[in-house]
Specification:
With 359 residues, the chain is α+β, with helices and mostly antiparallel strands. It has ten helices and ten strands. The protein has two domains: 200 residues; 152 residues, no CATH class. 44% of the residues lie in helices and 19% in strands. About 8% of the residues have low confidence.
């Protein structure tokens, strides 16, 4: 059965590709933001600064401040030193601020924290040395004050199924002229949902789609499933990237290059739709490979979406969970349906063997 052997080899190669790509890239989390049970939110800017708006991005991993006023706003760092400046002249960074180094992603990491040593010339007591980093009226930065790092606190470990305020108030200092202001917020532990309902949906889809291989006309329904699977994962991927609110070109490149396994699955899946509709052997193999790639990378790789309350997604968290459930069920279902079809229809292999164009 050369076709079945080729199918097994293709799926095996897909599995190796998923393993190699998913581990360093944190599976399908193409923005680098993982789902969590800790909700960070802005409470107020006190006193209010007209024209100044603050919001959190990436589940609290980044802060965005927009200043449409006539005077610059200075963001204070961890030691109260001038850290960032934004206003009519653009965005500036104080190169002598220790917060500049502390907020960069570094190579020295543990499971829950990042550590950085500030350079020798970085000191909170030194006069600011402003370096222009961009134009516009908005600045974004990573801030350790607005996100939870480290193991779960004792109150969460004691009652993980309950909601707890773990940081009642985090503070970021601002300065506009002689006016000092403070951005305040809080971090709340919100327990995640049960994955059981979503796994049931995924299981039902898997069985139903795998059973499609038993139909007399199996090509049209399986090709429709293949099209649906690709469409769902495309929306899922761009929904993750759009949650960052980065420029559109950045979002697109992040999806295409950062989720290269999913992109390969889309290409193979889209190419398989026509041959699968016509019930040709190439479409069956392509559907199996694409289905397995997407189910393993975008489905199983994003399993934490089903168990965490805070999900990086531009739409609702339920939408992200539904996408993961559909991707797992439809993807693995297509792979199994392909196996069923090839076992039940040996004429596909016989046609290929007798086709002179296959030589």
């Amino acid at each position: 059965m050369p076709t079945l052997r080729r199918l097994g080899a293709a799926v095996g190669a897909s599995f190796v590709l998923v393993l190699l790509a998913a581990a360093p890239a944190d599976a399908h989390t193409i923005t680098g933001v993982t789902p969590t049970n800790y909700k960070s939110e802005v409470v107020a800017v006190s006193p209010p600064l007209p024209g100044v708006h603050v919001r959190l991005l990436d589940l609290g991993n980044r802060v965005e401040l927009t200043n449409t006023g006539a005077a610059d706003v200075v963001v204070l760092g961890y030691q109260g030193e001038p850290y960032l400046r934004v206003g009519p002249g653009g965005v500036y960074e104080n190169s002598r601020s220790p917060s500049v180094a502390l907020n960069k992603v570094t190579a020295t990491t543990s499971a829950s924290t990042t550590t950085t040593v500030a350079p020798d010339n970085a000191t909170a007591l030194a006069p600011p040395s402003w370096r222009r980093t961009g134009g516009g009226r908005s600045v974004r930065w990573r801030d350790r004050r607005t996100r939870w790092e480290g193991p779960a606190p004792a109150v969460v470990r004691g009652a993980p199924s309950q909601t707890h305020v773990v940081i009642p108030e985090w503070l970021i200092g601002l300065q506009r002229g002689d006016v000092a202001a403070t951005v305040s917020g809080r971090i709340t532990y919100v327990p995640g949902p049960s994955p059981v309902p979503w796994l049931l949906i995924s299981g039902v889809l898997l069985v139903a789609i795998a059973g499609g291989g038993l139909l007399r006309r199996w090509g049209p329904p399986l090709s429709a499933v293949m099209a649906l699977l690709v469409a769902v994962d495309v929306v899922h991927s761009f929904g993750i990237s759009a949650a960052s609110h980065d420029p559109v070109l950045t979002q697109v490149s992040r999806v295409v290059l950062g989720g290269i396994v999913a992109t390969l699955g889309w290409i193979v899946g889209a190419a398989a739709i026509g041959p699968l509709q016509d019930e040709r052997e190439g479409g069956v193999v392509g559907a199996a490979v694409a289905g397995f790639l997407l189910a393993a990378f975008s489905g199983v790789g994003d399993f934490s979406v089903l168990t965490r309350s805070q999900v990086p997604f531009a739409f609702s968290a339920s939408g992200a969970r539904a996408a993961v459930a559909v991707t797992m069920g439809a993807g693995f279902g297509l792979a199994l349906a392909a196996l069923v079809v090839l076992r039940r229809h040996p004429e596909l292999r016989a046609t290929e063997a007798s086709d002179p164009s296959s030589d």
